[in-house]
Amino acid sequence: MRMTDHYREERLPRYTSYPTAPNFTGVVSAAIHADWLSSIEKTATASLYLHVPFCRSMCWYCGCHTTVAQRDAPIADYLTVLRREIELVSNKLANPLAVRHVHFGGGTPTIVTPEEFTDLIGLLREQFLIAADAEIAVEIDPRRLTCAMTAALGRAGVNRASLGVQSFDPTVQKAINRVQSVEQTATATAGLRSAGVRGVNFDLIYGLPHQTVQSCVETVEQCVALRPDRFAVFGYAHIPTFKKHQRKIDEAALPDAAARLDQAAAIAQALVAAGYERIGLDHFALPDDSLVQAQAAGLLHRNFQGYTTDSSDVLIGLGASAISRLPQGYVQNEVVLGRHAERVLRGELPTSKGYGLTADDRLRADLIERLMCDFEVDLAQVCARHQTRPEALMGTAPRLQALVADGIVHLDGNVVRIASNSHILVRTVASAFDAYLTSSGGAYSRAV
């Protein structure tokens, strides 16, 4: 394989959706959103994503939609709006939706009080048919997790927690404005498990300022001693044009593309050596985890939260900036908190923009998801599901031939297979089938 600098340096989507968010437009209005919700079939299964866009301090690497809140009043006001939005969305549905996955993301969802979180879960159970065995997941900052909140999560039925770690290297932590000890993380992990939260995930990042292969491996060693069930390992996306707080990061301290690749490889090697199995591009899980079982069965999926076992027909996003995936297409809520609140309190869906799927979009979304999950795809099988032929699709992917020539991709009839030593370039291969990808790529992160 010739992993050229061109492939390393490309900025590409993470393909947690297709088409990706930069293709969303204002053509999808609140009225269209309401119509899409009302036409969801009674037999559909659903996931819920609730966005809580507040943190007590800003981590300078952060690429999420969040804001710093030192006082509790703005958070309480937001929860009032969020509760109203939940009722608005529920009232647009022709039938109560059966929900098997609930995910609280942020920001820091556990910034709310234990009582507020309990009330919010209660409202969801009133408005939707939450399955008794539903996965209820919460993203957590271990530095801010209290014993009272931990107990509330357990009582509310939360059974999966994602803890941000990123790096335990003190030099890196200082450079990204996130100082977090191993002891804080261990205490949070133990508390969650004692409260009945069975699944614990850790998030790691490579490509951070002053980060080295050695510090990455040392962080992994400290993490695996706590034995989380899963890891998600992401490359830092430095896009200060879009995230102004990232300008506080010293660009001269960022590792180059070759160093990033070495860090990613070292983390993966260390996790596999510790007994974790690799899931797709950037997740790792213990052998008995449901992600491993789904991957082995060819049933792994990918959505805005990354790799998942979630096969729901519908994803409903609630809160400012949240994105929904409905049978007809994607919908994104207003990003600005004030605008989101104004519209909800007027009794409107806070729709900002979206995208209506075409038949070709559905085909390519299916194909790209399989590539991202399995590192290969049978074009004939995918095209048969969408009542078309692979020849037409291959004709619209001229970049694929260059990837074949570089040894990154192998073609076996209609099967596109990524070379085993090129899996880290799966986003590059997926991009060959992206009909909307522009050459600029400014809004995306590096492929490696």
Point out poorly predicted stretches: none
Assembly type: single chain
Number of strands: 21
Q: Given the helix and strand composition, which structural class is it?
A: alpha/beta
Helix content: 25-40%
Beta-strand portion reads: 15-25%
Calculate Rg over CA atoms: 21 Å
Q: What is the 3D form?
A: globular
Number of helices: 16
- Average pLDDT, all residues: 94
Strand order of the largest sheet: 10-11-9-8-7-6-5-2-14
Distance between the termini: 15 Å
Q: Please describe the biggest sheet, giving its number of strands, its sense, and whether it closes into a barrel.
A: 9 strands, mixed
Secondary structure topology:
Blueprint: H1 5-9, E1 11-12, H2 30-38, E2 45-52, E3 54-55, E4 67-68, H3 73-92, E5 98-106, H4 114-127, E6 129-140, H5 147-155, E7 160-166, H6 170-176, H7 182-194, E8 199-206, H8 213-224, E9 230-235, H9 257-273, E10 277-279, E11 283-285, H10 290-296, E12 301-303, E13 306-308, E14 314-318, E15 323-326, E16 329-333, H11 337-345, E17 351-356, H12 359-374, E18 376-378, H13 379-385, H14 390-394, H15 399-405, E19 409-412, E20 415-418, H16 426-431, E21 445-446
Parallel strand pairs: 2-5, 2-14, 3-4, 5-6, 6-7, 7-8, 8-9
Antiparallel strand pairs: 1-21, 9-11, 10-11, 12-13, 15-16, 16-17, 18-20, 19-20
Helix pairs in contact: 3-4, 3-11, 4-5, 8-9
